[in-house]
Amino acid sequence: MLRYVELYFKLVGAGIRAQLQYRFAFVMRIVGMITAYSGTAITMWVMLYQFQELGSWNFYEMLFLFAIAILSWGFCIILFFHFRSLDTYILNGTFDRFLVRPINPFFHFMAMKFDVAAFGQFIFSIFIFIWVSIELGIDWSFGKFLFLLASIVGGVLIQGGLLVIISALAFWTTKSEQFYWVVMYPARNLTNYPLVIYPKFVQWFTAFVIPFGFVNYFPAAVILGKETPFFPENIGYLAPIVGIVFFVIAYYIWMLGLSRYKSTGS
Amino acid sequence: MFNYRVYWTFTKKSFLRSSVYRFDVWSRLGSNIIFLLMWGSIWTALYAGREEAGGVGFEAMLTYIVVSQFLTGVNGAGTPLWEIQEKVRTGDIALELMRPFDIPLRYLFADIGSVAFYIVTALLPLYTVLFIFMDLALPTDWLTWLYFVVASIIGFMIRYCIEMSFGLLTFFLVETGGIEDIFYFAMSLLSGSVIPLWFFPDWLATIALYLPFQGIYYIPNAIFIGEIAGAEILVSIGIQLFWVAVTYMTLRLIWNRASRKVVVQGG
Asked: Which residues on B lie below 8 Å from A198 (Cβ)?
């Protein structure tokens, strides 16, 4: 286990050094990320300019909801985002190199890439957290802060788990990138807004099938003291557990897919 | 001399090519439906049971969003921005420079083919069903439908010219991060695709009215639900035509500069 931690940092360190060779590209990507997220935040502001509330959530509460999603997505990009392009590795035959080395292939594939551009997500979401905390006067007790961290970890595992499942589809269908754009990209957009506004079956689906509700909606409701109609009160406390369970399931699906994998055989 | 038959071939070919990539069509339709669900839910929640807001009825607003999502599907079915950027970065576009046709027009005609395929096989069936089964405020006279179609086509042209211009900027910049995000932001907010301009703060609405993006979604959508009516329709279409001319000339200018740059570098 310890060997794996050491190995992860070694592999990742090499990746970071490689990316920092292109300083300008690095900075521009961060600027791009922040611009894109600010765009969504401005859209929310314009939307609520006349209406004040969306399903009883005001602008600052929605920003908070958005920031939780962005922060955990930032970690997710670092750790798992490259899983979506597993199909390219399989089709090119370059996936085989992950199999011939004496370490767990899942781990090896995970440590292959470490995307430092996620700094954009961190800068944006931390700025929003501070701003919203001041505007809404959230009093950050130690327990609350700890819960926020725990639910971020849960959110990373849920979104990472879905990325892992999507990549595993490539073992059966030789497609994965497209599934990301069809399933996950829209799902992420959907959860930028409070789930309460969606039809019941969508809410139910995002709570119990693909548990994206636990990434930001349920935890944010706990921290901000908002109601979550149709769901038990304080269901958000389950977020870290849901994350762990979902990720373990995802891991086994991936390993199952791997056992079925046959090389392109060129 | 403009040779229609050359470009028409591109349209036919890309229509046929789309028919091979069925999965692409279905996946695009899938995410279109999810975004429709998202914006439909958002506007239902914003109205929160009210019959009307800001002088616009709920049914009309819902129609606005459905039509807007239809047009988003139409505008998203062509060559995407990143693909143009990729072609410039990898140098693939240089190969096309050697061939005897005009590249901005060649992509436009190819886009028309893939868009036509997507409309016929995916968008029209889905949105016909939606128009029939949802409570929407459809135009009652055929002339409004006609104006809507005309405005949508001009909007498509404006979007094409702007997107292609942004794509060609890759010739001059090493890194385009930030620039494309500004493009996507303007495309979604300032065009009125998700929030109609009448709900904007006044100052922002004024800015949006002086920019070309409103011609892509806001004008056709508003014509469809009758918010732009009577003589205003012709004025709006006039504004759109003005923007097509401006954006097309901008595209030509950028293209001329860009293609000369290729020649210089290619030595």
From this structure: 37-38, 41
Q: What is the pLDDT along chain B (267 residues), one digit of tens a residue?
A: 567 788 888 888 888 888 888 888 888 898 899 999 999 999 999 998 888 888 899 999 999 999 999 999 999 888 888 888 888 878 787 787 777 788 888 889 999 999 999 999 999 999 999 999 988 889 989 999 999 999 999 999 999 999 999 888 888 876 666 778 888 888 899 999 999 999 999 999 999 999 999 999 999 999 999 999 889 999 999 999 999 999 999 999 999 888 887 655 554
φ, ψ at A54 (rounded to 5°): -120, 105
Closest approach of B181 to chain A, Cα-based (Å):
5
B52 membership: H or E segment, kind and range: strand B52-53
ipTM of the prediction: 0.88
Query: CA-to-CA distance for A152 and A141, rounded, in angstroms?
Result: 17
Identify the contact set of chain A against chain B, taking CB-CB distances under 8 A: 24-25, 28-29, 31-33, 35-36, 39, 42-43, 46-47, 49-51, 53-55, 175, 178-179, 181-182, 185-187, 189-190, 193, 196-199, 202
- Asked whether A124 and A33 are in contact (CB, 8 A), the reply is yes
The domain limits of chain B are: 4-266
Query: Domain extents for chain A?
Result: 2-260
The Cα angle at residue B115 between residues B210 and B232, in degrees rounded to 5? 35
